[in-house]
Amino acid sequence: MNAKNKQIMIKKAVFNPLMIWLGIAPGLLIFILFRLVPSIGTVIFSLTDIRQTPGNAVHFVGLENYMDIMTLNMRDFGNALIRTGIFTGLVTIVQTALALFIAVILNMKSIKGKTFYRTVVFLPVILGVTVCGLAFKLFFSVDGPAAWFLHLFGQSSTFFGDRNVALYLVIFCQIWFNVGSEMIIFLAGLQNVAPELIEAARIDGASDWKVFWHVSIPQIVSVVAVNLMMCLIGSLSAYQIILVTTKGNEWTKTLSMMIFGIAFNVGDAGKSNAGRQGYASALQVMLFLIILVVTLITQKIQNKVEEKEGIR
């Protein structure tokens, strides 16, 4: 058998449709069981009056849950939506900018101990959301280090119980927890920037800022877009940090936390509409639609930017 025939046989074996399906079957099965089926179930539950209490009869109510959201509970839903917008906007902007700044600093050849600093920034991701949230909760407790520091200046605050600062403390905690993940992605992108382009720009007399803005950034546009997309989606659906630090009190009840609170009778959201899992499912569907719209808009902007930069 000559080499050409061997190559043909290898191609047929590799691109055999049966082998391709066998290869993707495990991942596809996991996606169907743990993503697609629960998603379809959520839509179905949103059209019923299913509750947390077992044994209750479940009735089909059509769009009644959605009507309740837009009429009876419109104010609560609107406030949660505003808090979600503030939370998502600040986290996305600050976290992405901070991660990029840290990545640029830790990508410099002149910086010593880069491995140590990268580990420190990434450490919250390793510790997990519960540990980070509890650490913040203890630090900003009424008798914690932050309260002691304020007392030195004759000031006081309830921190997570203060309507003026609670949401921003949660935002700060969310950024601290996730900035390491974005930093790693930015570092990977920056390290793939062609060094000859940077050297050519410096030979032409470009400053470090111009090299970064006109050479590095265009080369990592896709990386920036990926981080922004992940941060947007993650922020819109984030509730873990809020659950651990405040249990979704009145000042930190975002839409995702409102959904969790109603479904499982937790926090401020659990006081009203407690255990109405059908109602919570309707809220989840609305959150999904919001995320879908935001994702499509972001993707469209990304495509235009990449076309402008000549990446597509």
TrEMBL record:
Query: Mind telling me which residue stretches traverse the membrane in this protein?
Result: 20-45, 80-108, 120-140, 165-190, 211-239, 279-298
UniProt GO cellular component terms: plasma membrane
Protein's cellular compartments: Cell membrane
Cross-referenced Pfam families:
BPD_transp_1
Under InterPro entries, the record lists:
ABC_transporter_permease, MetI-like, MetI-like_sf
Membrane topology field: Multi-pass membrane protein
Q: What is its main location?
A: membrane
What's the domain of life for this entry? Answer: Bacteria
Q: Which UniProt keywords apply?
A: Cell membrane, Membrane, Transmembrane, Transmembrane helix, Transport
Q: What's an example Gene Ontology biological process for this entry? A: transmembrane transport
Where would I find the ABC transmembrane type-1 domain in this sequence? 81-298
UniProt similarity note: Belongs to the binding-protein-dependent transport system permease family.
Read off the PANTHER family from this record. Answer: ABC TRANSPORTER PERMEASE PROTEIN (PTHR30193), INNER MEMBRANE ABC TRANSPORTER PERMEASE PROTEIN YCJO (PTHR30193:SF37)
**What is the protein's given name?**
Raffinose/stachyose/melibiose transport system permease protein
UniProt source species: Butyrivibrio fibrisolvens DSM 3071
